């Protein structure tokens, strides 16, 4: 945890707490994610994949047609009639299944909302290229040594100030995350620190009362042990997220991203991902239906009790 007082130089990701003549900052001690220019396969494998180290790669997709074509006008023209899944910032609802959307509307309607101003509405885990196959011609599959799943190019959209809850991916993939149109902040946490993240049982998210922009270290004291990584992604930049890394995204402007993924390379992660996909998510859905809100409250209580016990 970082604590600063009366400083004139304030990092953009810090949280301010004001009194009339005094202010202080309580924030995580962030680590800047390394940024490099275009990498070869050997450089990527040796320096980032094998050690499971996140990195931002610039100048990697300038030869993609998508680099110059993909913007909101393009999407309105070529995908405007597609029905898209939308999520907002509400907490998990026991009446919904895991990752069930809160709303649907056409892409054109959604883009209109994005362009009008800040909104919490976002698109999550949407296979747009299944609905618009021609968009695959605008990209190239990166030759970085990963066996990417070509059937699952997923897109993510968000309006200004939209936030994606802190989580790790259910199947523990290696992720190449490309951003388009605008800028967003990405916060990552090493899976080695999962024990301090108040992870919910049978889930891959943390306690949803945690505000990662303004962490409450009194209510969630184990977070003091966490040292997140941070970066801002701009148009055309790629973020590599290794297996099981937690991530929290905040759109600073309206924008969208494309994620390409490969299966986990580590047997332990592959097995954990298999358990999540084949059992944990179905058990969680069944318990939501059977116990309702009481099940979600129980998971919150267990996460807090189990995590805080580590500090005793």
Write up what this structure looks like:
The protein is of the alpha+beta class. The protein folds into two domains: 1-29, no CATH class; 33-311, Cupin (Jelly Rolls, Sandwich), CATH 2.60.120. It is built from seven helices and 17 strands. A seven-stranded mixed sheet has the order 5-6-15-12-17-10-9, with no helix packed on it. Strands 4-14-13-16-11 form a five-stranded mixed sheet, with no helix packed on it. A three-stranded antiparallel sheet has the order 1-3-2, with no helix packed on it. Helix 1 links the parallel strand 5 (35-36) and strand 6 (55-57). Helix 6 (267-291) crosses helix 7. It starts with a strand and ends with a helix. Residues 3-25 have low confidence and may be disordered.
What is the gist of this entry?
The chain has 312 residues and is an alpha+beta fold.
Task: Give the full name of the CATH homologous superfamily of the largest domain.
Answer: Cupin
The major pleated sheet works out as: 7 strands, mixed
Number of strands: 17
Unreliable stretches covering 5 or more consecutive residues? 3-25
SSE pattern, N- to C-terminal? EEEEEHEHHEEHEHEEEEEEEEHH
CATH topology annotation of the largest domain: Jelly Rolls
What is the CATH level 1 assignment of the largest domain?
Mainly Beta
Q: What would the average pLDDT be, to the nearest integer?
A: 90
Helix content: 10-25%
Radius of gyration: 20 Å
Helix and strand topology:
Elements: E1 2-5, E2 16-19, E3 22-27, E4 31-32, E5 35-36, H1 41-49, E6 55-57, H2 65-69, H3 72-79, E7 83-86, E8 103-106, H4 107-116, E9 122-126, H5 128-131, E10 154-158, E11 163-167, E12 174-180, E13 183-189, E14 229-234, E15 238-241, E16 246-251, E17 255-262, H6 267-291, H7 293-308
Parallel strand pairs: 4-14, 5-6
Antiparallel strand pairs: 1-3, 2-3, 6-15, 7-8, 9-10, 10-17, 11-16, 12-15, 12-17, 13-14, 13-16
Helix pairs in contact: 6-7
């Amino acid at each position: 945890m970082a604590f600063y007082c009366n400083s004139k130089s304030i990092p953009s990701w810090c949280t301010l707490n004001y009194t009339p003549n005094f202010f202080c900052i309580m924030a995580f001690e962030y680590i800047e994610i390394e940024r490099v220019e275009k990498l070869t396969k050997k450089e990527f494998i040796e320096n980032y994949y094998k050690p499971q180290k996140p990195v931002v790669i610039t100048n990697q997709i300038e030869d993609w047609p998508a680099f110059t074509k993909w913007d909101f006008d393009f999407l309105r023209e070529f995908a405007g009639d597609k029905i898209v899944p939308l999520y907002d910032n509400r907490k998990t609802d026991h009446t919904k299944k895991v990752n069930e959307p809160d709303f649907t509307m056409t892409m054109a309607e959604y883009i209109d909302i994005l362009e009008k101003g800040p909104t919490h509405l976002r698109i999550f885990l949407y296979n747009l290229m299944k609905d618009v196959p021609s968009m695959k011609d605008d990209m190239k599959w990166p030759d970085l040594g990963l066996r990417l799943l070509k059937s699952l190019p997923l897109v993510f959209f968000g309006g200004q100030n939209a936030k994606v809850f802190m989580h790790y991916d259910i199947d523990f993939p290696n992720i190449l995350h490309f951003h388009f149109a605008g800028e967003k902040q990405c916060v990552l946490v090493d899976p080695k620190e999962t024990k301090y993240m108040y992870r919910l049982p049978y889930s891959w998210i943390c306690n949803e009362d945690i505000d990662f922009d303004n962490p409450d270290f009194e209510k969630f004291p184990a977070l003091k042990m966490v040292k997140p990584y941070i970066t801002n992604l701009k148009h055309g930049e790629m973020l590599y997220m290794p297996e099981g890394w937690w991530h929290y995204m905040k759109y600073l402007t309206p924008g969208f991203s494309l994620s390409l993924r490969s299966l986990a390379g580590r047997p332990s992660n592959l097995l954990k991902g298999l358990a999540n996909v084949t059992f944990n998510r179905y058990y969680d859905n069944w318990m939501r239906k059977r116990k309702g809100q009481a099940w979600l409250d129980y998971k919150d209580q267990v996460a807090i009790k189990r995590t805080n016990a580590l500090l005793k």
